[in-house]
TrEMBL record:
One Pfam family this sequence matches: ABC_tran
Listed SMART domains: AAA
SUPFAM superfamilies according to UniProt: P-loop containing nucleoside triphosphate hydrolases (SSF52540)
Domain of life: Bacteria
ABC transporter domain mapped to chain residues: 5-241
Segments of this protein annotated with the region Disordered: 265-285
Annotated source species: Actinoallomurus spadix
Protein name per Swiss-Prot or TrEMBL: ABC transporter domain-containing protein
Amino acid sequence: MGVEIRVEGLTKSFGRQVIWEDVTLTLPAGEISVLLGPSGTGKSVFLKTMVGLLKPDRGHCWIDGKDMPNLRERDMYEVRKLFGVLFQDGALFGSMNLYDNIAFPLREHTRKSESEVRRIVLEKMEMVGLGGAQNKFPGEISGGMRKRAGLARALVLDPQIILCDEPDSGLDPVRTVLLNQLIVDLNAEIEATILIVTHDINTARTVPDNIGMLFRRELVMFGPREMLLSSEEPVVRQFLNARKVGPIGMSEEKDLSELEAEARLGRDPGPLPPIPPQLMTSDGRLRRTQHAPGEWLRTHGVTPPEGSFIDEMGRDWLQEWPKYVAEMSAGAGRHSEGAH
């Protein structure tokens, strides 16, 4: 089961350059969250600060009741054991085969026997679809397989928190979708708290329970997926529409004269696209932390963009959801009865 992460007033700079300041958010336990933002907004720096690799200028990051920036090194080392990290390029050791790469954290941080190590490594490799590939080297496999191997290594210590730093980096669209599916399935299986840093729009729109966005050295907003996907915030609309018009420019942000010129010409980032249904697990089961489609919108009286929650098969999930939940609950009941 994942743990809650509570960030309060976190600020980080390098010299005179402020990366972001006064970032405050809560990652709910066991939920999937995404952190969006244009390139260069400090998303990876945020992950490194969370795990204590970088020290913030001020602020707090509470993990399992412990404030990471104010911990002694020895105590921080213990809290880090709650984390599993999937790096951008997988960060595998080129001289080791996949088995030894994935076994590395177990050999480094535990006193498990080699038979225990083997059982865990093969179990995690099977979990990410790499069964039988233990003798392959990183240079012999595709980028997608390297990502999955990196994810298997992140899982071997049974983390309660998984951080994914641009997991789609270097992957084609199909393999990105497959990796997203794997992350959703893992969340259902182990109920870890997951934070994905990305600038892939499709990942942000379909995978998470919560979304945040960094821009202009601050957290523009953070909250349930439907809140951000229905937001009229100009930078959010521009990013979700992948438009040139809006506050984001080539050097992160446009200057005032560019924005005034766009306003004179009557240009805007365009209407928000429809909110897609959230990605389901491969076997159709409900994740424990999953919310009903449209729940946040109904609670807050927000009308979603036209065409929202309709999947590629034409099913409207606002109508289908109650029936789906009933079927899943009935199926779970039958499975429970059969087990006795």
